[in-house]
Specification:
It holds the Pfam family BAG. By secondary structure, the protein is an alpha+beta fold. The protein has 6 helices and 8 strands, in the order βααββββαβββααα. Strand 2 (about 25-30) and strand 3 (about 35) form a beta hairpin.
């Protein structure tokens, strides 16, 4: 259990809300959130409050329970503003409020004004995350393009394998050229910086290239054992039949 110490400014304030905050006890919820401990003095009938939220030039109005915490208010504001809970700072009556503080215990009433500020450090974190996401997207796009090329080359490998299995000799230059094209794709893959899912996809395509090259090496050996088929044409000759035509002369 934690106890909040009153500040000199709070002791000098005559308001009732400040007086309630001078001696605040805290407790840990099962989810790990530190909240104000409910006492007989802070218990009050539950009612809905309409809060006016000022976020820069934007204005919002949300409805929450009077017994809600400022952390729960931030969750509602996440849906309105797109800011995550840890990116928000909520100010009420000139003080930044912690997630575990209850609205009614801090003197929040219907149509009270709450100021929302984006945490400056979160802006930098979001910018860094945007750059990381852009790199990941570029890596995915590059790997997908290479995967399409590997698909086409793998089809050619299958065609050569089928020809050799049928006893058809394939020109060696065709196999060598296909190996070179696959190795070019492997070099392109190595030049891509990838993390997470993109890294796994990169490794998968690299294994495909390796398997195709190994298959071609084996096919090259099998192809060398096949004697090329030489097609020769034998022409049949015919003797001219003897001429038996008798010509008759007329005067």
């Amino acid at each position: 259990m934690m106890k909040k110490k009153p500040s000199a400014r709070e002791n000098s304030s005559p308001s009732s809300s400040t007086a309630r905050e001078e001696e605040t006890e805290w407790e840990m919820r099962p989810g790990g959130m530190l909240v104000q401990k409910r006492t007989a003095q802070t218990d009050a009938p539950t009612r809905n409050l309409r809060l006016r939220i000022a976020y820069g030039a934007l204005r919002y109005e949300i409805c929450v329970s009077s017994t809600a915490t400022f952390g729960e208010v931030k969750k509602v504001l996440s849906g309105e503003t797109g800011l995550q809970v840890d990116e928000q700072r909520v100010v009420y009556r000139g003080r930044e409020r912690q997630n575990g503080e209850y609205l009614d215990a801090c003197g929040v009433k219907d149509r009270s004004k709450v100021v929302l500020i984006q945490d400056p450090s979160s802006i930098e974190r979001r910018f860094i995350q945007m750059r990381i996401n852009a790199k990941i997207q570029n890596a995915h796009r590059a790997i997908n393009n290479i995967a399409l090329q590997i698909d086409q080359l793998a089809d050619q490998v299958s065609a050569i394998e089928k020809s050799i299995s049928n006893g058809v000799n394939v020109p060696e230059v065709q196999i060598t050229t296909l190996i070179e094209m696959l190795m070019r794709q492997a070099i392109k893959l190595e030049s891509i910086t990838a993390e997470g899912d993109a890294s796994a996809q990169k490794n998968l395509q690299g294994k495909r290239v390796q398997k195709c090259v190994e298959t071609l090496d084996e096919l090259k050996v099998s192809n060398a054992r096949i004697k090329p088929v030489v097609v020769t044409t034998k022409w049949e000759t015919f003797d001219h039949p003897p001429s038996s035509t008798t010509w008759e002369l007329f005067d």
